[in-house]
Every structure is written in C-alpha cells, then in structure tokens.
Amino acid sequence: MRLRILILLTLFTGLLSGCGYNTFQSGDEAIKSAWSEVLNQYQRRADLVPNLVATVQGYASHEKDVLTQVTQARARVGAIQATPELVNDPEAFARFQQAQVGLKSALSRLLAVSENYPQLKADAAFRDLQAQLEGTENRITVARNRYIKAVEGYNVSVRTFPNNLTAMIFGYTVKPNFSVENEQAISTAPKVDFARPAPASPAAATPTDAGRPAPAASY
C-alpha cells in the first residue's frame, strides 16, 4: 500500500513538474527578488529628498511651490504599501508607478531651479546630492529592467501550453509589469547637468535691411 502511494506521489510530482508547476515557483521567487531590489532603489531615491529639499531651501527659500511639490510627491510615494502582494494587483501596481513618476517629475523641477542660483550649484553638499541622485537613478534603471525580464519570463510560462493548464488549475495569472508609457517616463533620470546654454549671438537680434529680425544663429 505504501509503495503504491509512493508511486502515485512520484507520478503526480513528475506531472506537476512537466506541466510547469516548478517553473511557476522559481519564476515567482525571481520576481519577488527583483521587486525587492526595485523597492530598495526607489527607497534610496526617496531618502535623498529631505536633504535635497533642505539644501535648496537654504539658497532659494522663496521657491515654495517647487519645494512643496517635491515634499508632497515623496509623501504620496511613502503612502503606498509596496508589499510583495502589490505585484499581483494591476491597479495597485499602476498607482505605485504613477507615484514614482510624480516624484521623478517633481525632482526634475527642483533640480532645474538651481539654474537660477549659482551659489547653490557651487555648494558641495548640493553637488554631492546630485551625484548620489544620478547614481540612484542608474541603479533604479538596472533593477527595474531585471524585474521586467523576470515578469516577462513568468508571464510567458503562464500563457503557453501546457503550462497554462497548470496555471488555470492553481490560479496562476500574469503579473503586471511596467507599461511602455510609464517606463519611458521613469527611465529617464532627473537632469543633473547644470551647464548654462550658450548665449545667443548678438547678430541674431540685428534687424535685416528689410526690417525683419534675422534668423536665429545655429549652434
């Protein structure tokens, strides 16, 4: 009797393995690992915000709107419970993406403010924060790409035969991924190059003989 049960269990285990059950388990673990790294890098960016805001405020305290936008964007990011279960909820995942896009955009506006404050741009602490932010954005891109690949592999397993039969039996479904639109929006790191554009040539503003302004000089 025991031998029969052992044989049945062996056959059942082999059946599950052949139909992708083990593939789903390994794929799910890969996604969890990649997602943890994504969250780690996003948290690194969020942790830079208070010091960045404080540094800018020290030189440009009257830029209240921009400073407030960054603070509020960070608060929206922090309000989302980015648990492992979030990757199974398309709506929650979309809200997470939207919050991260909002923070990225707010940071871009904050960094652009420094163009008007040479002393701020020369501040050693500010420049260090710039470097940290740039490095963090690069890490985010790498971590997010790994997550995208992990989800892609998992979703292919869920949708292809005969794995899809196992997926239906055990309730495995495709997981949400970074959409093309959001991916494009958040994959571009905030601009940290504060070199001023070259001034326009005086000749560009000189009227022509016909009284019309001359075309702008090309660079």
Q: How would you describe this structure to a colleague?
A:
The radius of gyration is 26 Å and the shape is elongated. Helices cover 69% and strands 0% of the residues. It is mainly α.
Write down the Rg: 26 Å
DSSP helical segment count: 8
Beta content comes to under 5%
The biggest sheet amounts to: none
Order of helices and strands: HHHHHHHH
Shape verdict: elongated
- Tally of extended strands? 0
Question: Structural class of the helices, strands and pairings?
Answer: mainly alpha
Please report the distance between the alpha carbons of the first and last residues: 87 Å
Low-confidence stretches: 6-12, 194-219
Q: Share of helix among residues?
A: 55-70%
Overall pLDDT level: 81
How are the SSEs placed, and which strands pair?
Elements: H1 2-18, H2 21-59, H3 64-79, H4 90-113, H5 118-122, H6 124-159, H7 163-170, H8 180-186
Helix pairs in contact: 2-3, 2-4, 2-6, 3-4
Short summary:
Helix content is 69%, strand content 0%.
Annotation keywords:
219 residues; mainly alpha; 8 helices; 69% helix; 0% strand; elongated; disordered C terminus
